[in-house]
Task: structure prediction
Amino acid sequence: MKAIGEILPVSHIVLDLDVSSKKRLFEEVGKLLETDSGLSQSDVFDCLFAREKLGSTGLGHGVAIPHGRHANVSHITAAFVRTAEAIDFDAPDNQPVSLIFVLLVPEQATGEHLEILSYLASQFSDKNVRELLQKCTDAAEVTKILSF
Result:
């Protein structure tokens, strides 16, 4: 599995993004990832939205990991967004979400995709990690918290 620092550059970390919905979040993430992912802004949006239609990627405890696989994604790329206000994400605990890790992977990267999702789920299940991410003041701190 690639290290989080390899797939999450500091330029893909946004703190206190002002969005009011999952749709707006995906639009902003599309702008952020379009260059590195190999997809257009609208393709990033469509990829994430299509996956979300299959079931919410909200984990609970204010966390979501929207992700998608696409034939035109050449390498795993990610973004981390902390929203200014929590947004509805249809999470299993019915709580709004403010910590979002977005993952785009090549279609054939099934194993690595699942390894990264598993690692992230374990990280975000730790209350201390969530609290630290809520308090971060810069992107470099996020990388340190999420890296192994």
